[in-house]
Amino acid sequence: MFYCIAYGCNNKKDRKDCGTKSFFGFPLKNLSLVKTWVKMLRRDNFQATPYSKICSDHFDESCFKYQPFTNRRQLKPGSIPTIFVFSKTTSSRRVLDRCLPTTSTETTGISNEFLSVLFGISDSTVSRNFNYVTSIRNAKLKLLDIFPTKSTVIEYIPLPIRFGNKDIRIVIDCTEFPIQKPSSPVEQQLTFSRYKNTNTLKGMIGITPNGAISFISPLYCGSLSDKQLFIKSKLMDRLEPNDVVMDDKGFLIAEELESIDCKLQYPIFLKDKIRYN
Q1: What is the dihedral of CA 10, 13, 17, 18, to 10 degrees?
Q2: Which pLDDT tens digit goes with each residue over 103-151?
Q3: CA distance 157 to 140
Q4: Residues of 182-221 as b/e, b for ≥16 C-beta within 10 angstroms?
Q5: Residue 231: which of 209, 254, 262, 256 has the closest Cα?
Q6: Is pTM, for the whole model, over 0.70?
């Protein structure tokens, strides 16, 4: 599968709207011409390979010659790609074009097929843009420390919880995400969750008493117990003496918390209690 490596170009050989375009390899036998092509591309540290292609959109029509009968487009010897767009305006526009379909997917759940029609791009471009934007967003957000200080937690703790529970630092629980069954028997066993009765990835999330997300663990294999996940998440490294962790009865972590002078507290369960209609 060929695709154009030029800046800002999304042309690919297998796209239906690229059927009339040609893709040309670098003249690797002519090193001086290769250097000229790379210079025109304005791509730092780029190394041309036999698989590097530039589409016909970046060559002037005078660079082509056509075979008789087949009318196949070929490059004339010594041709140089000269048609590129490097302006800041175009670059900013491309970033916006990538963000809009991603935001639309996240907020409305619109399918890639519909977005491709709405924005006039292919399904694969919608998918690539989604992966591109979410990966950058993830990299940027990971730099933020969302775990608040103890004084901040106390300042915003709701009044109904403040009395008798003022030392609650975090409320934790686990969540699982079903995944496709791995082909490896070992991975099948590691990811199989008895609780969900399927293969999953498991993570732990923590919130402050006022409901703000304050901790997100990496994802682990679904066979991991809540206690093992809690230890692996290294949440204990963020806790301070006398902190109280609230969770349900699935976390048997009282001893681990006591070892760092913290406490475990369970919420009040309504089972076997008087309830009002």
Answers
A1: 90
A2: 666 667 777 777 777 777 777 777 877 787 877 777 777 778 899 999 9
A3: 28
A4: eeeeeeeeebbbeeeeebbbbbbbbebbeeeebbebebbb
A5: 256
A6: no
Whether residue 55 contacts residue 4, with contact meaning beta carbons closer than 8 Å, is answered with yes
Cα–Cα distance, 112 to 241 (Å, whole number): 49
* Both structure tokens of 155: 């300042």
Q: What is the bridge-based pairing of β-strands 244-246 and 263-265? A: parallel
Closest C-alpha among 29, 45, 36, 44 to residue 80:
36
Dihedral of CA 48/53/55/59: which sign?
positive
d(CA 203, CA 225): 11
d(CA 175, CA 40): 51
The widest CA-to-CA distance across the chain, in whole angstroms, is: 90
